[in-house]
Amino acid sequence: MKSQKDILKSIEGLSDIMENGKLILDACCGSRMFWFDKHNPLALFVDKRSEIVTAKDRDKIRTIEIKPDIIADFTHLPFEDNSFYMVVFDPPHLKTLGTTSWMAKKYGKLPKDWQLLIHDGFTECMRVLKPNGTLIFKWNESEIKAAEVLSVIPFKPLFGHTTGRQSKTIWMCFMKLSINE
Ligand SMILES: C[S@@+](CC[C@H](N)C(=O)[O-])C[C@H]1O[C@@H](n2cnc3c(N)ncnc32)[C@H](O)[C@@H]1O
Question: Of 10, 58, 88, 98, which residue is least crowded by CB atoms under 10 Å?
């Protein structure tokens, strides 16, 4: 039986662009929870840490593995300009967590000057995106509203949608248009 990678490579034209590297960058992949295929061959997985973390979540002990292909800081990505057709950016969204809490270990924690981190990370994701490429941004509004995070991002989303039981998570779609530059 053909592997998913072989099937994708047999699609006309795809093998040429894949030989130059991956098509999609996940700039802070964590444990890749939102991926249907956590080893999707089209994607390059980056995070600033590689570790197995364990912590108490309510009454259960939970463990997850964060194993990126490349360890890197999303504010200084080791890629050339215009490298990927799609970038997925799901940075930490909480700032008031204890550092040993399960949520902090799972999602990371925002620093006090989170505005700078999000601005620099977003701008860097746009730099490595190809012209007319798509950037998918995921945010959770539990502590910082979407309007506030958008105010530090120098690009405008095309559209978005909320999800979750309380609709606090919002997925937004951006495009690297020349009018954004
Ligand atoms: C909300 S989680 C990502 C969850 C992931 N999308 C999933 O599906 O499991 C945010 C991730 O950003 C990573 N992170 C935080 N600051 C970073 C930085 N400066 N550069 C790269 N990754 C960073 C954290 O280690 C954490 O794994």
Answer: 58
Give the distance (Å) from ligand 1 centre to CA of residue 107.
Answer: 6
**Per residue in 29-39, pLDDT tens?**
999 999 999 99
Q: Where are the beta strands (DSSP E) in the chain?
A: 24-26, 43-47, 51-57, 60-66, 70-71, 84-89, 129-140, 159-163, 169-175
d(CA 140, CA 120): 19
Cα(155) to centroid(ligand 1), Å: 21
User: What residues are in contact with ligand 1 under a 6 Å CB criterion?
Assistant: 28-34, 47-49, 66, 73-75, 90-92, 107-108
Q: Is the pLDDT of residue 79 over 80?
A: yes
